[in-house]
Write a structure and sequence with these properties.
Layout (H helix, E strand, L loop, with lengths): L2 H11 L5 E5 L5 H9 L4 E4 L2 H10 L5 E4 L17 E5 L2 H13 L4 E6 L13 H8 L2 H4 L4 E7 L8 H19 L6 E7 L6 H6 L4 E4 L1 H4 L6
Parallel strand pairs: 1-2, 1-8, 2-3, 3-4, 4-5, 5-6, 6-7
């Protein structure tokens, strides 16, 4: 099946309130353009350099989402154009995003990454850390970022019950943080679910899914 057909198939399965992020990491611009021509406007990358290069070459009505782990020293390369940063897992990173956004007189939307997986390799903060961050004066002082939701990655496992439990944990973190609304915090998005588990994620309350291989086929790792 073509990228266009894959995209059509997935979109037909998504409820209206769920946003599709087409995860295009390692894929050439030609394949992204197939998705673009089929109507897709939101693309997710996990390397800032690669995202910046694709942003240069592609139409400017695309929303670029940074879905990978973010190194603070690379934020400056995407601050001018990034639409949403999914993996914000520390106040230091938030401060850096705020600083770089200010240079372009922008407000950059961010998701707090909550650690829901039991694997040590997954990044993220605890629900309590997220609550403390949102209620701090230091956070209130950041005028060039806005926290618009939470993101989480489930454990890489075939155990469906564990994955669903972790998704439910993220949704309950979202629900408990949602009451905290300030000028730079308005929680609406729950970003969870990928090619293998997005249906379960949606049932657990996801409003944004990150799908790559089901659209573009297996990744090109060299």
């Amino acid at each position: 099946m073509s990228v266009k057909d894959n995209l059509k198939h997935i979109k037909s399965q998504l409820p209206d309130h769920v946003t599709l992020v087409a995860v295009s990491k390692t894929k050439p611009v030609s394949e992204l353009m197939e998705a673009y021509d089929a109507g897709q406007r939101i693309f997710g990358e996990n390397k800032i350099q690669e995202m910046a290069e694709k942003h240069e070459q592609m139409p400017k009505d695309i929303q670029w989402h940074m879905i990978g782990h973010v190194q603070r020293n690379k934020v400056k390369y995407m601050a001018e154009f990034v639409s949403l940063i999914h993996g914000v897992d520390s106040f230091k990173l938030l401060k850096e995003i705020n600083k770089q956004a200010e240079k372009y007189d922008r407000v950059i939307n961010c998701l707090l990454q909550i650690k829901i997986a039991e694997e040590d390799s997954k990044f993220g903060m605890s629900k309590n850390d997220a609550a403390s961050l949102l209620q701090s004066d230091e956070f209130a002082a950041l005028k060039h970022i806005k926290i618009v939701g939470v993101m989480g990655m489930a454990t890489f496992t075939d155990d469906m019950m564990q994955i669903i439990k972790e998704f439910n944990n993220l949704k309950s973190a979202f629900d408990s943080l949602k009451s905290w609304q300030t000028e730079n915090c308005h929680l609406e998005t729950v970003s969870m679910g990928m090619s293998g588990d997005y249906q379960w994620a949606i049932e657990s309350g996801s409003t944004m899914v990150r799908i790559g291989s089901s659209i573009f086929g297996p990744r090109n790792y060299h």
